[in-house]
Amino acid sequence: VGCGICVNKCPFSAIMIIGLPEALDKPTHRYGQNGFALYGLPTPQVGKVTGILGPNGIGKSTSVQILSGALVPNFGEEKGDWDTVLEHYAGTGMYDYFKNVIDGKIKVSQKPQYVDMIPKAFNGKTRDLLEGTDERGVMDELVEKLDLGHIINRNIGELSGGELQRVAIAACAARDADFYFFDEISPYLDIYQRINSSKLIQELAKDKAVLVVEHDLAILDMLSDVVQVAYGMPSGYGVITHPKGVRIAINQYLKGYLPEENVRVRPDAITFEVHPPRVATDIATLLDYNAFSKKYGDGFSLKSDGGSLKEGEVIGIVGPNGIGKSTFVKILAGEVEPDEGELESEVSISYKPQYIKVDSFMQVRQFLRSITRRFDTSYYEAEIIKPLQLEPLFDKMLNDLSGGELQRVAIAACLSKDADLYILDEPSAHLDVEQRSLATKAIKRFAENNGKTAMVVDHDIYMIDMLSERLIVFEGEPAVFGIAHPPSSMQVGMNKFLSDLGITFRRDEDTTRPRVNKKDSRLDREQKAKGEYYYYK
Ligand code: ADP
Ligand code: ADP
Ligand code: MG
After folding, report:
1. Residue 162 in contact with ligand 2 by CB distance below 6 A
2. Which atom of ligand 2 is nearest to the CA of 479?
């Protein structure tokens, strides 16, 4: 591992680096002789949120085991011992930290990455789980801030992903620890909930050390005080850089090059184009749809305005959880019948649902080959297989794939079908930051190069911003009713969406990526006064 030769051939080439920096010849920890090697460590700091930015499989859990004292780092030798660790960190800020670890003075509270596992480990009600972890006596406050009141007496086994995620965040924050580790906060949460959770974690960090791994860059950006970039080769080795300023770290990461380390983490940059909207008259219409409505029994009801989709455009779809986005796309895709309004369809549609079901026992290679005739072409290799990192999955069975692996295969399958309209419901789910950027690029290039129309439901603002030419915004009351507005320009749509959320964005001068303004900052107040929630420079 760490060679420079396989940059183009390695299945992980998208996240391959050109050699290891020389200063890193000795790992912090290595599992066995040819096992995974970790270089560097996250450095928790009291009073700060330290964000970790990088792909999965790069040594986060290993790091946290070391920082909690459960694993003694061996510096590449056969066995580690604490005396060597203290010697190694003498004269650095980590010396005192490890001294405390050895003296049993550091208590760690962790939120696991996969919240879906919680019901397997805990049998009981939300209240029981939270009472069991509430060492700081803050349960009522957390229940209120994370909006858990209505599920407090429900069984953990009955909670949705988004509810479990918020319960897990509350449980981690309720413990009385010195060092808190949140392994992702955004999965299953909508933007509103992501921002709420971020605020809670920032408050927690006022007098504690907090480490957060997060793949939603807008959230990582607003949440962190410093960022450590993680790079390397998943399962091979991982390097964790020293802490950097948040803006600088994210910009360096997007550009694919870390100047201080002199390392390229990606062959090319991820760019945000502040694209001028195309002139409406020169583009043919793909589909005009009529207004429609749908009500589930005496439960949730959806009303959609009619609208028009153009050829070759990508339309983003945004709104809180439980507002009817999935119902809306299912109706367009013909999976659900509306009660009122008819959707004639000459237009063929390829649809990736939010929750992906596996109903065939096939290897990934065989599955994709059964969908497309282009499987063995260089086009397919360059545009689908490589960006979605599918090659390492080819021999695996569909039913053995992890959430992130299945998501990548499902995106590939959706784009492999012959259709006029491609609908993807939450493609960023379960993907790490690198996979999201690559998937975004793959979807966008697919639409551009083939002149196809795509609709993408997602909560990741970076993904929506990079992909979309126009936007459908939902409003209403989650779980009660939802209204789908017709597609509007990005500017009009984002202004509507963000004014509902009460947050404003500016554009980073260097990379033009959107950044959340601090609440009540000068820019935040100015932009709100002008109604420019989503700032186009
Ligand atoms: P992350 O949390 O970033 O996803 P981990 O720290 O869990 O990464 O794992 C990084 C790599 O280390 C993985 O490829 C895994 O196979 C390997 N690894 C983790 N724990 C062990 C162990 N106890 N023995 C050997 N290898 C391990
Ligand atoms: P979103 O994708 O915006 O999160 P959904 O369209 O999935 O929203 O769901 C909107 C509301 O409709 C939710 O309250 C959900 O529980 C409810 N709902 C979704 N599908 C069904 C169904 N088949 N039967 C009854 N209620 C449903
Ligand atoms: Mg949905």
Report:
1. no
2. 14
Cα separation, 515 vs 236, in Å, equals 33
Pocket lining: 188 vs ligand 2, CB cutoff 6 Å: no
Question: What residue type is 460 in one-letter code?
Answer: D
State which ligand 2 atom lies nearest to the alpha carbon of 324.
6
Instruction: Say if CB 415 and CB 385 are below 8 A apart.
Output: no
Ligand nearest to the CA of 193: 2
Stated pTM of the model: 0.93
| Maximum Cα–Cα distance across the chain | 73
Q: How far is the CA of 183 from the centre of ligand 1 (A)?
A: 14
Which residues does residue 534 pair with via DSSP β-bridges, in sequence order?
A: 505
The string of pLDDT tens digits covering residues 499-512 is: 988 999 999 999 99
Counting ligands in written order, the one closest to the CA of 300 is 2
**Ramachandran class of 54: left when φ > 0, alpha when ψ lies in -120 to 50, beta otherwise:** left
- The ipTM, to two decimals, is 0.94
Lowest mean pLDDT among 100-114, 260-274, 281-295, 322-336: 260-274
CA distances from 306 to 320, 332, 508 (A): 21, 11, 35
- Report whether 98 contacts 68 (CB < 8 A): no
Question: What is the best residue among 296, 298, 317, 332 to mutate for testing ligand 2's pocket, by most ligand atoms within 8 Å of CB?
Answer: 296
Position 279 confidence tier, pLDDT thresholds 50, 70, 90: low
From atom 4 of ligand 1, which residue's Cα is the shortest distance away? 57
74 CB within 6 A, ligand 1: no
Between vectors from CA 213 to CA 395 and to CA 455, what angle results, nearest 5°?
Answer: 65
300 lines ligand 2 (CB under 6 A): yes
Answer whether 244's CB lies under 8 Å from 51's CB: no
In contact, 310 and 453? CB cutoff 8 Å: yes
> What is the distance between the alpha carbons of residues 515 and 507, in angstroms, rounded to a whole number?
6
Sequential DSSP letters for 248-315: HHHHHHHHTEETTTTEESSSS------PPPPPGGGS-EEEEE--EEEE-TTS-EEEE--EEEETT-EE
Nearest Cα to Cα of residue 67 among 90, 92, 85: 85
262 closest CA partner among 24, 11, 14, 12:
24
pLDDT score of 7 more than 50:
no
Ligand 1 atom closest to the CA of 55, numbered from 1: 3
Q: Which residues surround ligand 3, an ion (CB under 5 A)?
A: 325-326, 354
Alpha-carbon distance of 179 to 350, in angstroms, equals 46
Distance 353 CA to ligand 2 centre (A): 13
Local structure of 29: helix, strand or coil: strand
What is the Cα–Cα distance from 242 to 252, expressed in whole angstroms? 13
C-beta of 29 in contact with ligand 1 (< 6 A): no
